[in-house]
Amino acid sequence: MALMPVADALSAILAGAEPLPEETVALDAAYHRVLARDVAALRTQPPQAMSAMDGYAVRSADGPDVGVRLKVIGEVAAGRPFEKTVGEGEAVRIFTGGVIPAGADAVIIQEDTAVDGNTITITEAARAGRHIRPAGIDFRQGDVLLARGARLADRDLSLAAGMNYPELSVRRRPKVAILATGDELVMPGSTPGPGQIVYSNGYALRALARAEGAETIDLGIAADTVEATKQGIRRARDSGADILITTGGASVGDHDLVKQSLEAEGVAMAFWRIAMRPGKPMMHGRLGAMRVIGLPGNPVSSYVCGFLFLVPLIRSLSGRADIHHIAETALFGRNVGANDLREDYLRARLEVRADGALIATPVDHQDSSLLGNLAAARGLVIRAPFAPAALAGSPCEILRLPT
Fold first, then answer.
1. What is the per-residue pLDDT across 261-271, written as a single tens digit (0 to 9) for each?
2. Distance between CA atoms of 20 and 318, rounded to whole angstroms?
3. pTM for this one?
4. Which residue ranges form the domains of the chain, and what is each CATH number?
């Protein structure tokens, strides 16, 4: 079977990945959730013209020059408007956030006045509109300020509250179940026996999924038998998982049983093996509504494939408008050799040079088992199939890894 190009594999994984149903959540629970609907302001902010400073509300016609004396006829505080009209020669003491009283069209800040009993002398000329926040300067009722598909940031919650929303309609979080396979795996904190290794893949994958807003289900480690693997697949299905991630058992050895087990459980396989490094033995299929991504067992391959394929799938199911990773241009920090037929994703350190140039230096050892180099990397350098050798300082494309 020919190796599937990376772009085709991603298209297959995302095909038909429609946003999950919506649900309504309290505003405090909406952080980093994805909006299911546009959000239009329910009110105008501010609803009336308000003072931006502490001072005196006046008529600009009364204070074109310094030295003018005005009679103070009342006071305005935030939430306590002045009910009368400011007339000729009059002023109203006003505080920040106070409603501008009828008749006034300017504010003289308190530092620009001299107070004598119930009169003030202005030491700065009044100008119409000065130190006044007009009604609706922030937003007006009906303005759409938060768009469907946006992932809500902390500032968005404040805006939604200001628009008078106690709750919001968001997409249901995707559920991602992760099943490891392999007799050689033991949990962290154990003492590995001969030939055993400490299981690490699930920790990065679950963190990656949670960072994208998904719920995660840890299905543990399945033994290298078809029945144990099938049991794990059934548990994922029964848990209502939208995505099942398997790690390990995706190659062609006698003990690599994941593909066989998936097919035995009725998974319709879309592809197996892609033209990329690391991650060639990745697979994808569906079991009813549940999407399955079979990741390689090597930790670097597992993570890179999770970053490249799982993240966009979670975003798509979440209803996000920004599904795909955005590539940036950088400069190679060292020479690199020519590439072969597979698209390469080189783990690289990133730094910004004094002149502002972004430098991407691939780590020396790109072996897909090296967790130390993966943790040290801040980006992936994308090398197209059959890319020629490149010298240090030449341009390259990178994807930033999460930090």
1. 999 999 999 99
2. 6
3. 0.90
4. 6-20+172-317 (3.40.980.10), 22-45+138-171 (3.90.105.10), 50-133 (2.170.190.11), 328-400 (2.40.340.10)
